[in-house]
Amino acid sequence: MNDKNKQVELENRLKAKEKEIEEKNKEIEQLQKTRLGLYWDKEKEPEQVVLDCENNLPVLKRIKGKEIKSDKGEENILIEGDNFHALTCLNYTHQGKIDVIYIDPPYNTGNKDFKYNDRFVDSNDGYRHSKWLNFMEKRLILAKKLLKETGVIFISIDDNEQANLKLLCDRIFGRENFVGNLVWANKEGGGSGDSRHFKIKHEYLLVYGKSKENLEIQGVDIEDEYRYKLSDEYEKERGKYQLIKLDSASIQQSDSLKFNIISPENTIIEPKGCWRWSEQKVKWGLKNSFVVIKKDKQNNWAVYTKQYLKVDNKNKPIERNKRQIGIIDKFSTTQSNRKIKELFGKVNFEYSKPYELIHLILKLSSNKNSLILDFMAGSGTTGHAVLQLNKEDGGNRKFILCTNNEINGIEKEFKEKYNLSNIEFEKERKEKSKRYYKWEEKYGICSAVTYPRIKKVINGYNKNGNGEFVEGLGGNLHYFKTDLITIDKVIDEKDKEKLKINDKNRKELTHKAGQMIAIKENIFEELRLNNFYQIFESKDKKRRVGIYFGESKEKFEKIVEQLKGNYKSALYIFSYKKIIKKNYTLSKNIRLEDIPEPILEIYKEVNRLIKK
Ligand SMILES: C[S@@+](CC[C@H](N)C(=O)[O-])C[C@H]1O[C@@H](n2cnc3c(N)ncnc32)[C@H](O)[C@@H]1O
Description:
By secondary structure, this protein is an alpha/beta fold. It is built from 17 helices and 30 strands. It starts with a helix and ends with a helix. S-adenosylmethionine binds at residues 82-83, 104, 106, 351-353, 376, 378-379, 381, 402-404, 406, 408, 445.
């Protein structure tokens, strides 16, 4: 190398070093600016499910034959697969549409409850908390995009990760959107006795609003509603009422509250102590039927106020409910095991939450039309609670559940049945042997617990297998699995982040996107599927959605023909870029949409968010 070349090389190296220093300085500056917060090790070994999305596109595939239908109730969804893939797809179908998210993630106890990249994270793993945070961060970022502006997320957690999760959520949802850290006393009896210091018998529910300002949390019902059992001619506006004596010995004595009231027999009634209302107010009460004078059990004249359920003592409408206290001490883990036993005759999943707990938080946070998501669904408690609540208040809430199909919660029993040691079981699992797949089909959480539980709850079941019949709650379920389409990415020289795929993949995606479009449009009955188009119809036969795969003008006319008429329809038209809507003159009832570009746009956004 001559001197000149050497000099150029040195200069280049110097420039590279200077750039490196500049970047490090920026990092330091950033760290100094954000002294408050959470730091953890970024991934050394990225999650395979995330890497999968670099060369594949996740889609949802319907599993036909597994739908559960009843003649009443809404259309609900169960997705089997990794929730990173499911959340990516849901960002296409449900961005900004979810009212309530509840999740119960692995608590990272170090005791085989949390798998990162398909391996259990044990308590000796130096990156244990970082792995968990990396896992949760990605999912929560995607979940946040699904929430409505008025939406809310509840996350069950215990002391293993509560503090880390709080800071992570502050970062993702914004500290200003922290709503509360509820304490749930989860154990009956004494609580965990293995601590030398305190008996811990509680865990938490962290609550964040998408925007706390827009979030509404309802009060809980009063517990003594049964006392309001009398009625009068004002029942329609004021509700039922209870009688409460007007005199009281216990309130502060005041001369102005001591006056005589005349009975219907013209006798004088004196208060014991003093009256609770002023003379003027009593006059108003008598005139407006808020005060009655009648004989008591001892046959003496007594004065009562009427306390109505729906109005206060000024005849102003009120909700007789109260704010939920941040400590919930009603439902226990023992109770949830009992429920699982009642459903299956045995406890085939040990980590479920009591459905009464989820029922309570849904009552506080949902309305009758809410859409509820649980992407760590386990035994499907959230779905059960949604159906129960609908039954109670005639609601039309819908749920989306997602869970993987791992054999968890019943490993011990399973290994005993097949006479497998831990090592043998893990070997089969890692190798993903054919045998293991078959086991998953039979014993995996989604196949063996989530799906059958929802089926039982919809259709009805015998308690403990042979006891009293519990009526079904109604509802419908559609079963999906996550799937991947392998793509040949085309690098866009101008915009390297741009997710460009070739025309063949674009077509394949369009052909496979039909089921996701059905989910997006909430229209599930497949009417037609051929090489040119696919059509779905809603249960009430009022709405249709068509997906036109392209190629044939004649077939285009055919699909349009089937979407015309008295339906509210949508037509998704395949195109290589964006369609020019004004070039289509279709009947007014048909809304036009592009496919597959919007899916690619969303996936690009997901990739960008995750990398950031
Ligand atoms: C603690 S359990 C939830 C229990 C649930 N709340 C109930 O009442 O049954 C957590 C569930 O999340 C599931 N899970 C964990 N990681 C997942 C992932 N990456 N994708 C999908 N499901 C996952 C596990 O299979 C497990 O069933």
